[in-house]
Amino acid sequence: MNPRLTLVGSVVGAVIVALDGTVLTVAQPALRRDLDASFGQVQWTSTGYLIAVASLLVFAGRLGDRYGHHRVFGIGMLGFGAASAGIALVPDIGWVIGLRVVQGVFGALLQPATLGMLRAAFPADRLRTPIAVRTAAIGVAAAAGPVLGGALVAGPGWRVVFLLNVIPAVVFGALALAVRPPRAVSPARLDIPGPALLAVCLACLVHALVAQPGWVWTAAIGTVTGAAFVRHERRSTSPLLPPMGAPPARANSRVGDIGSRAVGSALGMLVAASAALSGSLFVGTFLLQGPLGLDPFHSALVSLPLAALMVIAAPSCAVLLRRAGARRTTTAAMVVLALGILVLSRASAVPALCVGFALVGAGFGTVMVAATHVVVRQAAVGSAGVAGGLQQTAMNVGPVLGVAAATALMGAGGDPELPLTVLAALALAGAVPGRALPARPDPTIDDHGQSKDRTPVPARP
């Protein structure tokens, strides 16, 4: 597939997932009233999706490495769109929950593929801009989602919300499946026990973090399966993940430098940044609509600088990476993110809140582009799917951690200062792993013609 068309498909896939999550949040109250559902049932429309997607992302990435990212992306898009259309027609809440789980499965297929396709279509030294464009598009979706969702719920109704992504999902899914990349001579062996153990571990972790009934048991099961996964990986001749921190020469050549300290540190920064962001947004919602007395619409307007600066930060980060390197860029961005959260913790007027949200958006948007660039660039083309799965897993687990921490720290009183201060400290702590990131852009990674999906790109003059 043409690199430009691949970029468009990657952006559309990422936007569909981001938009789906934001519009669902707005639609949930109307959905509950219309289907006569309990609050617990409505919560499972989000929790069921999250458990399904988080548990399968890395395995889905390996499927893309094995069978081709365009093919897995196409199946994921078509399935995601079909599940969305089904939700718009359901008669009761049980069907919504079930189809949201199905949607999570197909979402897990398409999300790592959006990054895997980019790694396969663009040389390593030209990944900054495509990743920045993808991140900026996600920022636009995050800003437009609540407004668009609110307008549709107030007009045609909540069911129309789920029809938004059906047409683009079908169109780009069909286009992706029409691609016939050459088969690899020695495709990576698919190791089923490892991904299965990791899926159970991640599913239990997410279930425990959202404090569902029985979380103690699921936490225990997650710990046991996590230990079993580590043991299996150490003994496997074809591990899903190489040991983090292993020198490139010792890592499996099929996975390049995906097991390097730089990748592990970048993933840690993504978890910390997304946890700090999501926890702050959770607390900020109560701050805006509680002590400050703003209605939901005006609350959304006050927080718009976050999305706007996230969009602006994405292309700016591509320039910073080229000039300053990932280490200084991510470290400075995490400090900006922490500063923005501290401003929010002490703000009592709208202008100060806007400044805080703008700093949070600028810091997070920069970290997301820079850390994602490190993860994807360090991976050989043959393991780009696993790299994408790891990045998406970090971006799914982090928000669960952040919201869980914010909920526990707010307590019954709902005081926002303590949780926001702790989340700012988390963002600062997340800057520490940045020391393991490359100080300057690395030399171009040679994939030795291993890509199944790549369309040749003319060399830069």
UniProtKB/TrEMBL annotation:
Residues 437-461 are annotated as: Disordered. GO terms for biological process: response to antibiotic. One of its GO terms (molecular function) is transmembrane transporter activity. The chain crosses the membrane at residues 41-60, 72-91, 97-119, 131-154, 160-178, 190-208, 214-230, 262-288, 300-320, 332-349, 355-376. GO terms for cellular component: plasma membrane. It holds the Pfam family MFS_1. InterPro entries: MFS, MFS_dom, MFS_trans_sf. It is found in: Cell membrane. Its main location: membrane. Keywords: Antibiotic resistance, Membrane, Transmembrane, Transmembrane helix. Residues 6-442 form the Major facilitator superfamily (MFS) profile domain. It is a multi-pass membrane protein. Residues 443-455 have a biased composition (Basic and acidic residues). PROSITE patterns: MFS. This is MFS transporter. It comes from Streptomyces cyaneochromogenes.
